[in-house]
Specification:
The chain is α+β, with helices and mostly antiparallel strands. It is built from three helices and three strands. Helices cover 46% and strands 12% of the residues. Strands 1-3-2 form a three-stranded antiparallel β-sheet.
Length: 69
């Protein structure tokens, strides 16, 4: 668990392919939990939690992220 990747809001948004405000929305709605804070007080998220929130959101919206060719 110690070597698990932790992401800032910006990194989480890049990973999920969404805007930073979407990450904050997921947190407000309870779809994503803030796991910790870095040395600057920025919110941190577990990589797996971000991936689960992204997948659940896209499934509910019936949209799938398709990689660019």
């Amino acid at each position: 668990m110690e070597d698990e990747p932790w992401l800032t809001v910006k990194e989480a948004a890049l990973l999920a392919g969404v805007d930073v405000q979407t990450i904050y929305s997921w947190v407000r709605r309870g779809h994503l939990e803030v796991t910790g804070l870095d040395h600057r007080g920025r919110k941190l998220f577990r990589h797996l939690d971000v991936a689960k929130a992204e997948m659940a959101t896209r499934t509910r919206a019936k949209r799938v992220l398709v990689p660019a060719a």
